[in-house]
Amino acid sequence: MDITVINEKIKQESAFIDMLLQEIGKVIVGQKDMIEKLIIGLLGNGHVLLEGVPGLAKTLAIKSLASAMKAKFQRIQFTPDLLPADLIGTMIYNQKDGDFTIKKGPIFSNFILADEINRAPAKVQSALLEAMQEKQITIGKETFILEEPFLVLATQNPIEQEGTYPLPEAQVDRFMLKVKITYPSKEEELSILRQNVASDFPQINPVVNTEDILKARKVLQEVYTDEKIERYILDIVFASRNPKEYGLDSLSELISYGASPRASINLAIGAKAMAFIRRRGYVIPEDVRGICQDVLRHRIAVTYEAEAEDITSENVIEEILNKVEVP
Fold it and tell me: How confident is the model at residue 53 (pLDDT cuts 50, 70, 90)?
């Protein structure tokens, strides 16, 4: 395998990333990490959960990404009274024909913005789960395959718990990444302020189409991952399950359960996507470390003892990364 050839191919095929970032950058000030993680989810064919307090441009970022692409986009506001039919569609009786016809719901799009996803009840979550995992929807006796690319980009507010339903662990695990959004810097917020009080708010133009994304996903598979990097990924994941084997005895009482095999797969795909964005044809340890928190933070559960000591899954991941040997 000639790395030079792969490198050149990746440089050519990833040229649209700069156009995408530039277009989104018209309306999103700062938050570069969040935008990159959304693009990684897009390239890696994985759903993304954004968590942050209100007003941090989570919804705007997702809408901007969809606007920069020639793709079908639907925003669904999740509420406690939402029904599965509001999401996937339903069967309607046609009095004229004396028969039932299927009316498709908003889920039949390329991009789904599930706004405040944790406000919807269990039945709605299970309907969404089928779409996320199987990329299909069942209405009555008929099953419909969803059009590619299909991506669920969800947001949730961590500070307001009234009227919310905690997402089931099985569903949370279906998200490739869980990205935490933080406040902008003072300079960034000054730019945001000026932009929003100006008379002409920037408009985003579509610069990428769905064919470009599907093509990029195929090219992504050619990004080279050395066996040492693969073993490094496995060591990180296995250290979350059996910390004592990696000299992390202090973590054994703090971890309730470790990351699933889906974490290993998503770490490998995410690292490849990170290399692709960096216009590189091979994965380096920094790619794995750069995506590790977002892949693992929702897949490692800490014990009550850890919570009592204010130790989070992020602290656990940090300790694992510091201990596991880098190739």
Answer: confident
In the chain, % of residues over pLDDT 90: 18
Q: Is the pLDDT of residue 160 over 90?
A: no
Instruction: Specify burial of residue 21 (Cβ count, 10 A radius: 0-12, 13-18, 19+).
Output: middle
Three-state SS annotation for the chain? CCHHHHHHHHHHHCHHHHHHHHHHCCCCCCCHHHHHHHHHHHHCCCEEEEECCCCCCHHHHHHHHHHCEECCEEEEECCCCCCHHHHHEEEEEECCCCEEEEEECCCCCCEEEEECHHHCCHHHHHHHHHHHHHCEEEECCEEEECCCCCEEEEEECCCCCCCCCCCCHHHHCCEEEEEECCCCCHHHHHHHHHHHHCCCCCCCCCCEEHHHHHHHHHHHCCCECCHHHHHHHHHHHHHHHCHHHHCCHHHCCCEEECCCHHHHHHHHHHHHHHHHHCCCCECCHHHHHHHHHHHHCCCCEECHHHHHCCCCHHHHHHHHHHHCCCC
Share of the chain above pLDDT 70, in %: 97
Model pLDDT, residue 227 = 93
**CA atoms within 13 Å, Cβ hemisphere of 113:** 19
Is 224-323 a domain of CATH 1.10.8.80? yes
pTM, two decimals, is: 0.86
pLDDT of residue 163: 58
Domain-wise residue ranges, the chain: 3-197+208-217, 224-323
pLDDT at 166: 74
Q: Which CATH number fits domain 3-197+208-217: 3.40.50.620, 3.40.50.720, 3.40.50.300, 3.40.50.11690?
A: 3.40.50.300
**Residue 185 pLDDT class (50, 70, 90 cuts):** confident
Contact partners, residue 135, CB within 8 Å, separation at least 6: 145, 146, 148, 150
